[in-house]
Amino acid sequence: MVPVSGIYTVVHEVHREEHPTIAIRGEEFPSCRVCRDEVRFYVAQVVPHVTHDFDLTGPSVYVFRGRAKAAKKGCG
Predict the structure, then answer these.
(1) Global confidence as pTM
(2) What angle do CA 40, 17, 14 make, to 5 degrees?
(3) Domain, as residue range, for 21
(4) CA angle 27–48–54, rounded 5-degree value
(5) Does 1 reside within a domain?
(6) DSSP class of residue 29?
(7) Helices marked H in 10-76 — which ranges?
(8) pLDDT tens for residues 36-75?
């Protein structure tokens, strides 16, 4: 299982040069069609997936950016 989202270096047994790929936390690492379970994945750079970023997917909070205006005298 992928421990952290990010860019991984994929290392195959013999048939292919190592190459980068993106893996998402919680997904399963796949086996290779050629070298089967002899493929290895190493974290090259931890990069959070957009759905795992609190600022982008956390609870919505309305932030009022204006200033309140005082009521005028004699209105009402």
Answers:
(1) 0.70
(2) 70
(3) 6-57
(4) 110
(5) no
(6) P
(7) 54-57
(8) 999 999 999 999 888 888 888 766 666 556 665 666 666 5
